[in-house]
């Protein structure tokens, strides 16, 4: 992300404002000030963030995602809709105006605290969902379940660490690559109902407004509705699987055909390109400064303007957080 900040003044200004709000929101919660740390001359590595106080890594992801969304919206106008995948659903709802950047940061930190009580882990398998389901469908791995379907070549499974190790060995014997994600918790697992209930209450305490644009969820498989209990729906990310191909198909069916990923990585864009048949939609990688379109006017501040973009997808990559 630091390279993108250096190359894009719009993004850098957005990040400064977002992380100022994030730091103020979680002051007193025992976290380092992220704005000077992340936006300074020597930003931390992901490992350094992971070793920091609980929630620092999640807040960094949240802030980077909202910053990218704000930069895209400043340059092109508000999106027609947003897509949230796993932890990115918090940023998606923030971007849609359900709560302020500060309240979204508090929700992100609330989730980080809940995740510390979610035993187990997550493993990425290089296969489709049906193959992953077959790999876990054994008596010695009964506690493992499909957590996230990224595309036909990537499926994440969740469960107790000893059982994940058995799945990984079984996968390797069948030629399927298995990679344990660097996350000290499980997610998207039906055994996490108690943790989901705690998180739902934290979400409900901070709800302020209805979304100003459609918000799609990879867990729900479609958009939130006016009748949804957003606390329950957001906490579903802890207990239910996320399926990116299915929600992308729904989005395209609903008329969305151009997508911009807002977040510090390209994992979602890669999966989306693999999941969607060629020609049905276009996907752009995150944090690449959009160039003005031919014939685009420039206002007095020198920034290009353009018609509003279709959905921005504010989602972190799988290796940095659960993609639910």
UniProtKB/TrEMBL annotation:
Boundaries of every Malonyl-CoA:ACP transacylase (MAT) domain copy: 18-296
UniProt enzyme class: transferase
The keyword Acyltransferase appears for this protein: yes
UniProt feature, compositional bias: Pro residues: 305-324
Coiled-coil region(s): none
Region (Disordered): 283-324
Biased composition, class Low complexity, residue ranges: 286-299
One Pfam entry name: Acyl_transf_1
Keywords annotated in UniProt: Acyltransferase, Transferase
Molecular functions (GO terms): acyltransferase activity
Catalytic function, reaction form: holo-[ACP] + malonyl-CoA = malonyl-[ACP] + CoA
EC number: 2.3.1.39
Protein name, entry field: [acyl-carrier-protein] S-malonyltransferase
Naturally occurring in which organism (per UniProt): Streptomyces hesseae
Taxonomic lineage: Bacteria, Bacillati, Actinomycetota, Actinomycetes, Kitasatosporales
């Amino acid at each position: 992300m630091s390279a993108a900040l250096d190359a894009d003044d719009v993004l850098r200004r957005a990040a400064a404002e977002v992380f100022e709000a994030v730091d103020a929101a979680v002051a007193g919660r025992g976290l380092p000030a992220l704005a000077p740390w992340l936006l300074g001359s020597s930003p931390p590595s992901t490992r350094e963030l992971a070793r920091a106080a609980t929630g620092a890594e999640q807040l960094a992801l949240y802030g980077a995602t909202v910053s990218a969304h704000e930069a895209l919206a400043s340059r092109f106008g508000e999106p027609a809709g947003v897509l949230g995948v796993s932890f990115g659903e918090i940023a998606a709802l923030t971007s849609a105006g359900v709560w302020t950047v500060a309240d979204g940061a508090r929700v992100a930190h609330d989730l980080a605290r809940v995740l510390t009580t979610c035993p187990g882990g997550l493993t990425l398998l290089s296969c489709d969902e049906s193959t992953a389901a077959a790999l876990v469908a054994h008596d010695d791995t009964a506690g493992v379940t499909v957590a996230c379907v990224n595309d036909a070549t990537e499926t994440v499974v969740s469960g107790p660490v000893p059982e994940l190790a058995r799945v990984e060995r079984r996968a390797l014997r069948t030629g399927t690559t298995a990679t344990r994600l660097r996350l000290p918790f499980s997610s998207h697992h039906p055994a996490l109902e108690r943790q989901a209930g705690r998180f739902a209450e934290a979400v409900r305490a901070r709800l302020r407004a209805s979304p100003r644009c459609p918000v799609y969820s990879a867990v729900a498989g479609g958009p939130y509705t006016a009748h949804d209990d957003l606390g329950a729906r957001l906490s579903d990310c802890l207990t239910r699987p996320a399926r990116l191909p299915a929600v992308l198909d729904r989005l395209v069916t609903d008329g969305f055909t151009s997508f911009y990923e807002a977040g510090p990585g390209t994992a979602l864009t890669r999966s989306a390109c693999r999941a969607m048949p060629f020609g049905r939609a276009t996907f752009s990688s995150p944090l690449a400064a959009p160039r003005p379109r031919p014939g685009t006017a420039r206002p007095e501040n020198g920034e290009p303007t353009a018609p509003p973009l279709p959905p921005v997808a504010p989602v972190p990559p799988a290796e940095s957080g659960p993609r639910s």
